[in-house]
Design brief:
With 167 residues, the chain is an alpha+beta fold. Helices cover 34% and strands 28% of the residues. Strands 1-2-3-4-5-7-6 form a seven-stranded mixed β-sheet, with helices on both faces. It holds the Pfam family Acetyltransf_1.
């Protein structure tokens, strides 16, 4: 008889661990390539990609004002999410990413839940996030998890929808 293992774990991990760095590279590449393909019908220039990843390594996802969680399925790194405090009450959800082969497994909800737990541990009572219009599945996920659209709190070129949730 064959036994299939399907064990998920999601927990805090240093932003600069090898798995977190690899996940961030995949996440950033996906975010950037999808933007450029949508707007300019091209992928991200490799030099630009390297510059941007180096400029944003994730150092804000460390205690006492932040945290990063990594999801693993049967030990393999599958996804991640970061949280950082914006003020004494609000934490911001960032870098929610799940490798394509793990999508549709319910893991995204696990990752967001673990990030919310970390935000609570940091003292936050509210989680906020922004997301692009073209990330339809992400917006649907946040709504399923109890997030509601809120007024803008960021004004970057990639922020097109804003969500919030009481923790």
């Amino acid at each position: 008889m064959t036994t299939t293992h399907d064990t998920w774990t999601v927990g805090p991990e240093p932003f600069d661990s090898p798995d977190a760095v690899a996940l961030w590279r995949e996440c950033y590449t996906h975010l950037s390539d999808s933007w450029y393909l949508l707007k300019e019908n091209r992928r991200t220039d490799p030099e630009e990609l390297e510059r941007e990843i180096a400029a944003d390594p994730g150092s804000e996802f460390v205690a006492p004002r932040g945290a990063l969680v990594v999801a693993r399925r049967d030990g393999a790194a599958a996804g991640m999410a970061g949280v950082r405090l914006l003020d004494d009450e609000r934490a911001e959800l960032k870098r929610v990413f799940l490798r394509p082969e793990f999508r549709g497994t319910g893991a995204a909800a696990r990752i967001v839940g673990a990030a919310e737990d970390q935000a609570r541990l940091l003292g936050a009572t509210r989680m906020v996030l922004d997301v692009r219009t073209d990330f339809v599945a992400a917006r649907a996920l946040y709504q399923r998890l109890g997030y509601s659209e809120i007024e803008p709190y960021t004004f970057g070129q990639y922020a097109e929808h804003w969500f919030g949730k009481a923790l």
